Amino acid sequence: MRIIQLTPGTGNFYCGSCLRDSALVRALRARGHDVLMVPLYLPLVTDADASDANAPIFLSGISVFLEQKYPSLRLPEWLQRILRSPRLLQLAARRASMTSARSLGEATVSMLQNDNGRQTGELARLVAWLRTQPPPDLICLSNSLLSGMARRLKEELRVPVVCTLQGEDSFLDGLPEPFRRKAWDLLRQRCADVDHFIAVSQYFGAVMHTRLDLDVARLTVVHPGIATEDFAVGVTPPTPTIGYLARMHPSKGLGILVDAFIHLKQWNKVAGLRLRIAGAKTNADEHYVKTLQRKFAAEQLLNAVDFLPNLEHRAKADFLRRLTVFSVPATYGEAFGLYLLEALASGVPVVQPRHGAFPEVVQLTGGGVLYEPNDAAALATALQSLLLDPATARRLGENGRRVVQEQFSVAAMARKTEEVFARVIQRSR
């Protein structure tokens, strides 16, 4: 099969969707398929690049913003080339906090309006470039926010379009009104242009089935996979250590984990306990992180905490090997949580809130425990139960590692995705 994968980049930090898409593309290529990965909006930031050197960035974040803000503006081609520069886009991504909620709402609605939106010029440029490439058998959109381009891509390239569902609801629900309602309404309409959907969990498939009125016959669940060989079990850390690996952002529940850690230190039942916080930190997160650091300082706990922002892939694997237990207490219904697979592949048990896809992951892997969401004391109690019971923690970590290796590898994800793609292509002929 020849496949075109369209994936939005973040420009300057890792995101779960980019990591999943990049790993899938590499695995499909290893299975003999010709896969062209094309970045949208901003450069892709992944642990092992799967994008193509000859694939430029389309729907450049700066160009999309300017077309939205000034629809009558016509920039010369030489200036447009500068605005599509990966280096300039990375610089712009660091200033992402300057983009207002209203601007995001207007742009999201516009992108979902198919040929009636303000980004028709950028979409035409993408289509023109794709027509210069060898004809594909299928196009895969990284998420449903890209579905506004599905009809145009199908009409121009005469191939089916598959769309992954991997956490778009939290972004849409965060838009201000009236853009939130308009975006959801448009998304329901645009879904008719997509041939099939792949959800990253049973939980999220059910969420989007309900919210978008999707036909279950057009929806398949394929759990994400990771390169399990990149993660190994480490030695028992000299002091009990709780780990966090996600964006340093309130929505990921970092503040809840901080409060839980303070509870644990006050209870004083786990001697020498440490907290290690790693993951993406953008300029927009800097103020929040400093607020947390001041909180630790007020409790005289700053020396018991490590902040390790923006770790590279190898450092991330080493970080996980040095943990006793792992938690990312996200405050919203996470569609999956790739970081759970990485922790479990390292033999580290997880403690997660009982919502979103977390119960599904914990049940499938047998690698952790659940607690009531958004309750720091409940999280502290669950963490303490494992910290004071090394045998149970070790058993959960071993269970999780075994299941992840057997069922959540990149190869397993690619094989199941390949089967979906083949069925969709066959039906389209």
What does this structure look like?
It is a single chain. The protein has 18 helices and 12 strands. The protein has 429 residues and is α/β, with parallel strands linked by helices. It folds into 2 domains: 2-225 and 410-428, Glycogen Phosphorylase B (Rossmann fold); 228-407, 3-Layer(aba) Sandwich (Rossmann fold), CATH 3.40.50.2000. α11 (254-267) links the parallel β7 (241-245) and β8. 46% of the residues are buried. The model has no long low-confidence stretch (mean pLDDT 89).
Please outline what is shown here.
The chain has helices spanning about 15-30, 60-70, 75-85, 85-95, 100-110, 120-130, 150-155, 170-175, 180-190, 200-210, 255-265, 285-300, 315-320, 340-345, 360-365, 375-385, 390-405, 410-429; strands at about 1-10, 35-40, 140, 160-165, 195-200, 220, 240-245, 275-280, 305-310, 325, 350-355, 370.
Tertiary shape: globular
Fourth-tier CATH superfamily name of the largest domain: Glycogen Phosphorylase B
Tell me the number of strands.
Answer: 12
The CATH top-level class label of the largest domain: Alpha Beta
Helix residue percentage: 40-55%
Q: How many separate domains make up the residues?
A: 2
What's the CATH topology name of the largest domain?
Rossmann fold
CATH architecture term of the largest domain: 3-Layer(aba) Sandwich
Query: Biggest sheet, in brief?
Result: 6 strands, parallel
Strand order in space, largest sheet: 2-1-3-4-5-6
Low-confidence stretches: none
Strand content: 5-15%
- Discrete helix count: 18
Quote the distance from N terminus to C terminus: 14 Å
Mean pLDDT: 89
Gyration radius, to the nearest Å?
A: 22 Å
